[in-house]
Amino acid sequence: MTNKRKSFGNENLSMDSDLDQLFKNKDPKESKEPKEHKLRSFSSIKDYYLKTKDYKQYTIYLPPEIQSKLKSKAIEDDESVSDVIKELVINHYLSDKDIKDAYDRGYNRRNSN
Predict the structure, then answer these.
(1) Among 21, 25, 102, 110, whose Cα sits 20 to 30 Å from the Cα of 95?
(2) Each residue's pLDDT tens digit, 22-63
(3) Is residue 53 a contact partner of residue 42, using CB atoms and an 8 Å limit?
(4) Which residues lie closer than 8 Å to 6 by C-beta, 6 or more apart?
(5) If 0-12 CB within 10 Å is exposed, 13-18 middle and 19+ buried, where does residue 49 land?
(6) pLDDT in tens, 53-106
(7) What is the C-alpha to C-alpha distance for residues 78 and 30, in angstroms, rounded to an integer?
(8) Superkingdom of this entry's organism (predicted)?
(9) What is the DSSP secondary structure assignment for residue 28, as one 8-state letter?
């Protein structure tokens, strides 16, 4: 038996229930589950930041010779200048506590309801 399509002119049509069945979108505010799993170990957090492609642009000023050398060395190593600087900041500049605090703030922002 084939189902007939319902006409919008049909007075017996229950629009709310039919639309609810078609578009089962949950309101994100109704969900109490976090959008992502919270990382606990520092090595996982560090790897998360080293692998992320979620960037925010930031301008730095370097002497022209250093900028040129940095750019050519990054090309030679098949990396972007952004990735080189990101690795240097994460591995050598920020403390473990700084990175963990930044992750916690970002996690809370990304998962706030």
Answers:
(1) 110
(2) 666 655 555 566 678 899 899 999 999 999 888 889 999 999
(3) no
(4) 13, 18
(5) middle
(6) 888 899 999 999 999 999 999 999 999 999 999 999 999 999 999 999 999 999
(7) 45
(8) Bacteria
(9) T
